[in-house]
Amino acid sequence: MARIIGLGGVFFRSADPAALAAWYGEHLGLEVDPGFGGAMFNEDTARAGYTLWSPFAQDTAYFGRDTQAFMINFRVDELDPLIAHLRDIGTAVDEKVDDLEFGRFGWFTDPDGNRVELWQAPSA
């Protein structure tokens, strides 16, 4: 069965994402990538992928509903079968799947109404 294999990222709303990222950099040594305004970790070098920490603008539409303060991204081993399984059990799954240079992405809404992102990293 397709499954979650790790945490792909933690994304959250911020009134000032750049200032918050700078604060984490200055006071906690977080190496923020100016290209996306977040930090990247690669704690499991045996698997393709990494974990992102990234503040988003307060008014982002990426998380779905306005009241959702954060979004979790899970790394998965096989995106398509996992999305099919979620649909089979009646979970609300976005129709869109993004195929990008850094992997494949899909989204669903959990039973509490939280939008969750699934990410299959490109093969190493």
Describe this structure in words.
This protein has helices at 17-28, 79-88, and strands spanning 4-14, 32-33, 38-41, 51-57, 70-76, 92-93, 98-100, 103-109, 115-120. Strands 1, 2, 3, 4, 5, 6, 7, 8 and 9 form a 9-stranded mixed beta sheet that branches. The two termini are 21 Å apart. With 124 residues, the protein is α+β, with helices and mostly antiparallel strands. The protein has a single domain (4-120), classed as 2,3-Dihydroxybiphenyl 1,2-Dioxygenase, domain 1 (Roll).
Mean pLDDT: 91
Sequence of secondary-structure elements: EHEEEEHEEEE
Question: What is the CATH C level class, in words?
Answer: Alpha Beta
Give Rg in angstroms: 15 Å
CATH architecture: Roll
CATH superfamily membership: 2,3-Dihydroxybiphenyl 1,2-Dioxygenase, domain 1
The amount of helix comes to 10-25%
Strand content: 35-45%
CA(first)-CA(last) distance? 21 Å
Number of domains: 1
The low-pLDDT segments are none
Class of secondary structure makeup: alpha+beta
Biggest sheet statistics = 9 strands, mixed
| Total number of strands | 9
* CATH topology term: 2,3-Dihydroxybiphenyl 1,2-Dioxygenase, domain 1
Shape: globular
Count of helical regions: 2
